[in-house]
Design goal:
This protein is α+β, with helices and mostly antiparallel strands. It is built from six helices and five strands; from the N terminus they run E-H-H-H-H-H-E-E-E-E-H. InterPro entries: ArsR-like_HTH, WH-like_DNA-bd_sf, WH_DNA-bd_sf.
Amino acid sequence: MARWSSDELDESDGSALPPVLQSLDDSTCREILTRLNEPKSASDLCEDCDLSSSTVYRKLELLRESALVREYTEVRRNGPNVTLYERDFAEISIGIDDTGEFSMTVTRPETDPEDRLATFWSAMKEQS
């Protein structure tokens, strides 16, 4: 679970809060998020959302930077590997407390060891 305060909203150092809100403010990003009820490839999302591949990849990058979408490679024995995308949050809540401070909480889904290993290998692929 990630949590941010209103102090971080005012920071201009590229903290995670502004990209999350930017992603949620973007109707195309929201459309992609609604279509990711199961893991999908970028080409599947192009068809589902009736968008160009450049738009889908640009929006997926914003969603990945916001930590709202997870990318991983599915290794296939009978064909080429495929990169899949899935939502990486269960709930986002924004609140305000009695002192007037805003907070945002991003709740992540539980992951099993296989998912953690896939995430690890995807991160290793990005670094190489």
